[in-house]
Amino acid sequence: MTAHEADCEKCEELLQGYLDRDLTADEVVIAEGHLNGCDYCRRRYRFEEHLRRYIRVSASERMPAGLLAKLAELRGPTVDL
Amino acid sequence: MSESGAESEADAGRRIAGEARERVRFEEEALELADQVYRVARRMVGTREEAEELVQDTYARAFRGWRSFTPGTNMRAWLLRILTNLNTDRGRKIQRTPDTQPLEESDYYLANKLAAVEGEQALEQEQVVERLSQGGVVNALSELPHDFRDVVVLVDLGEFSYADAAQILDIPIGTVMSRLHRGRRILKQTLAEETLS
After folding, report:
1. Distance from CA of residue A54 to its chain's centroid?
2. What is the domain class of B103-196 according to CATH?
3. Closest approach of A66 to chain B, Cα-based (Å)
4. Contact B52 A48 (CB under 8 A)
5. What is the pLDDT of residues A28-73, one digit of tens each?
6. Distances in whole angstroms, Cα of residue B174 to Cα of each of A58, B80, B147, B162, B178
7. What secondary structure does DSSP assign to A24-52, as a single string?
8. Residue A75 lies in a domain
9. Residue A66 lies in a domain
10. I want to staple B83 with a disulfide (CB 3.0 to 4.6 A). Which of A8, A24, A81, B58 is the partner?
């Protein structure tokens, strides 16, 4: 493995933490330093960002009509306030 | 039972009215969150009917136990805590354990597969993800082992923090992170296999 490939591997390891903003300051420097010079990794980070948004939108299903009314019926007794 | 300083009838009336106002406020705030609660519930169970039932059971319990909610804290997380407890209580179907699935331990796996099919430049374009299809995403999520799925759904769909997800599921934050990372990898592998093969 070349030194560059080793850096790509490290960058891949940092992908999830980076997008979750959960890396240490040092790790952010490593990831961004590599991303600045590596199209391969930069594309894959961008792809992951798009993928996450796509998953969120695709998997999100609105509450069925009528459910809110059923939930409201479960409330305690009405009171005059 | 009579105590010195027992409240007068008027005080008792005010206290009861005050408590009723608090309860109504709680109920209204909870109902405003119903759609967001449902969206998370829907991906934790198999069918729309199960999700509706689970949300109704959650609200029934929440409305009965509203006094145990601390005003000013995260009500959405509080409701989801009830929901995941109920979901665990009702027992879950036996699933394939994650260990029996071979796993490509790589976060670039799906991107690499897509790049092989669509070309490296395609990864630059936001639309390339649509190659996966919304139904494919829903399927891949439903096939995740439930421990992983709960965390992925809470964090990636519900947009809860690691800390909130840990509290909701009553597991350590380190477990949230490892399940989340592994769950996302399994998800990407499933997406690659089901939509690109």
Report:
1. 10
2. mainly alpha
3. 10
4. no
5. 999 999 999 999 999 999 999 999 999 999 999 999 999 999 999 9
6. 28, 20, 14, 9, 6
7. -HHHHHHHHHHHHH-HHHHHHHHHHHHHH
8. no
9. no
10. B58
Mean predicted confidence (pLDDT) in B113-141: 92
pLDDT, tens only, B50-108: 999 999 999 999 999 999 999 999 999 999 999 999 998 887 554 444 555 566 668 99
- Note whether B180 contacts A75, CB cutoff 8 Å: no
> Does the beta carbon of B122 lie under 8 angstroms from any beta carbon of chain A?
no
- What is the span of the domain harbouring residue A18? 3-60
Q: Is residue A44 part of a domain?
A: yes
Question: What residues of chain B lie within 8 A of the CB of A72, using their CB?
Answer: 31
Tokens of residue A30, six digits: 């490593």
Backbone phi, psi, residue B69, to 5°: -85, 135
CATH for B9-89, among 3.40.1010.20, 1.10.10.10, 1.10.1740.10, 3.40.50.1820? 1.10.1740.10
User: Is residue A70 included in any domain, yes or no?
Assistant: no
B chain contacts of residue A46, beta-carbon cutoff 8 Å = 123-124
pTM: 0.89
Q: Above 0.85 for ipTM, yes or no?
A: yes
Q: Is the Cβ of B86 closer than 8 Å to some Cβ of chain A? A: no
